[in-house]
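Task: sequence design from structure.
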C-alpha cells in the first residue's frame, strides 16, 4: 500500500470553502455581493500560500462590503459562529489587524471575541508593533480571563518567535516584558494554555536560556500543571544536554547505566524507508534514578559533512538493577524542513545529556 499525501493546509481555503463563506455572509448581510467576493477571492488562488489565502479572504470582504469599520465588525460578529472551520475563521482577526488599528478599544474587543472561534494570535502582533505598551496591558488582563482561548491569546500572541509570523523584536530582546503573563499562566488548568506557555518559554531559550532557567528554578514544581510547563518549556535545552535544565526535571545526575544490544536496522535503506533503533539500558545504581533518553541522527548534508538533529525518546525512572528495552522507528523521508543526502548516517543514544552509544546506517543514492 502506498502512502497517500495529505492535502496541503492551504486547501482549507478552496473554492468550496470560499462559497461557504459567501453563503454564510449573505445570510447575515443580505446585500452582500457574493459574486464580487468570489471573483476577487478566487483570482490566482492556486499560487497563494495558506496565510496569503487568509489575507485574500479578508481583503476580498473589504473590497465588496461598503460599510465602515464598526458596521463591518457587527456583521463579522454574526458571521463568526456560522463558519464551519476554526482555522478558516483566521480571516476575521486578520480583518481587524488590517482595518482597525486606529480604533483600538473596539479592535481589542473584537480580537477577544474572534479568538474564541479560532485564534487571533497573528492579528494581535500587528497591534503590538503599532502600540506595544497599550496592547501588552490588554494582553496582561486577558491572561486572567475566564475563557481559555483568551488566556492562550495572551501567551501565544506575545511569543517572540511565533511560527508563520514576524518576530517581536522587543520581546525577543527583553523577555521580562511578558513575565507577568507567563507568571499568571504558569499553573493554568487548561492544556491548551499550558502548551502555549511552554512554547513561549521555549522560544525564549533560543536567545536567553539563562533567563528561562532562572525563572523556572524560582517556580514550585509541586503543582503538576507547572511541572508540565517546565518540562516542555525546557525541551530544547534538554535535547542539548543542558545540566541546569536536566536538574530542574530531576535528571541532572550522571546516569548510572550500561547500554546493551544497540542496533539500527536495516543497515542500508533508500529514501522513504524506515529505520528501527533498538537497545536496552541496565541500571548499575543502588537506588532508582530519573533518566531522560533521547537520540540524535547525524544527517549527511549537501557538502558531505554531517549535522546532528536530536529527537526525544522517553523519560522514566529506572529502578536499581532493572533493565529497560527501548525501540523507536523513524521514517527517513523528505520534509519541507529537511533534505536528505546519500551516505553514512550516525545514530547516537543520549541519556541525561551524555552520549552512551552509537550505530550507523547508510542511505543509498
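Answer:
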Amino acid at each position: 500500500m502506498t502512502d497517500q499525501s495529505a492535502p496541503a493546509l492551504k486547501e482549507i481555503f478552496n473554492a468550496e470553502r470560499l462559497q461557504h463563506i459567501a453563503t454564510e455572509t449573505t445570510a447575515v448581510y443580505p446585500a452582500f455581493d457574493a459574486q464580487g467576493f468570489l471573483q476577487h477571492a478566487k483570482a490566482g488562488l492556486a499560487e497563494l500560500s495558506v496565510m496569503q489565502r487568509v489575507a485574500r479572504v479578508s481583503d476580498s470582504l473589504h473590497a465588496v462590503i461598503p460599510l465602515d469599520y464598526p458596521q463591518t465588525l457587527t456583521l463579522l460578529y454574526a458571521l463568526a459562529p456560522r463558519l464551519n472551520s476554526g482555522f478558516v475563521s483566521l480571516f476575521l482577526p486578520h480583518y481587524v489587524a488590517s482595518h482597525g488599528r486606529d480604533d483600538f478599544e473596539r479592535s481589542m474587543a473584537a480580537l477577544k471575541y474572534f479568538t474564541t472561534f479560532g485564534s487571533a494570535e497573528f492579528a494581535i502582533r500587528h497591534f503590538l508593533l503599532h502600540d506595544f505598551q497599550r496592547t501588552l496591558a490588554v494582553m496582561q488582563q486577558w491572561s486572567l480571563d475566564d475563557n481559555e482561548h483568551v488566556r492562550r491569546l495572551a501567551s501565544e500572541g506575545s511569543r517572540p518567535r511565533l511560527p508563520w509570523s514576524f518576530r517581536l523584536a522587543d520581546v525577543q530582546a527583553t523577555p521580562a516584558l511578558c513575565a507577568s503573563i507567563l507568571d499568571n499562566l504558569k499553573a493554568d488548568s487548561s492544556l491548551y494554555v499550558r502548551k502555549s506557555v511552554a512554547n513561549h518559554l521555549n522560544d525564549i531559550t533560543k536567545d536567553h536560556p539563562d533567563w528561562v532557567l532562572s525563572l523556572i528554578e524560582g517556580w514550585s514544581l509541586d503543582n503538576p500543571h507547572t511541572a508540565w510547563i517546565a518540562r516542555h518549556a525546557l525541551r530544547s535545552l534538554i535535547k542539548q544536554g543542558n545540566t541546569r535544565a536536566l536538574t530542574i526535571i530531576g535528571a541532572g545526575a550522571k546516569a548510572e547505566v550500561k547500554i546493551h544490544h544497540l542496533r539500527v536496522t536495516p543497515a542500508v535503506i533508500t529514501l522513504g524507508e524506515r529505520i528501527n533503533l533498538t537497545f536496552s539500558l541496565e541500571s548499575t545504581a543502588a537506588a532508582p534514578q530519573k533518566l531522560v533518553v533521547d537520540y540524535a541522527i547525524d544527517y549527511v548534508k549537501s557538502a558531505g559533512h554531517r549535522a546532528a538533529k536530536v529527537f526525544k525518546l522517553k523519560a522514566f525512572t529506572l529502578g536499581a538493577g532493572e533493565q529497560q528495552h527501548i525501540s523507536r522507528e523513524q521514517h527517513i523521508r523528505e520534509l519541507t524542513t529537511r533534505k536528505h543526502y546519500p551516505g553514512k548516517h550516525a545514530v547516537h543514544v543520549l541519556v541525561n545529556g551524555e552520549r552512551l552509544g552509537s550505530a550507523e546506517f547508510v542511505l543509498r543514492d
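The first strand starts at residue 257 and ends at 265.
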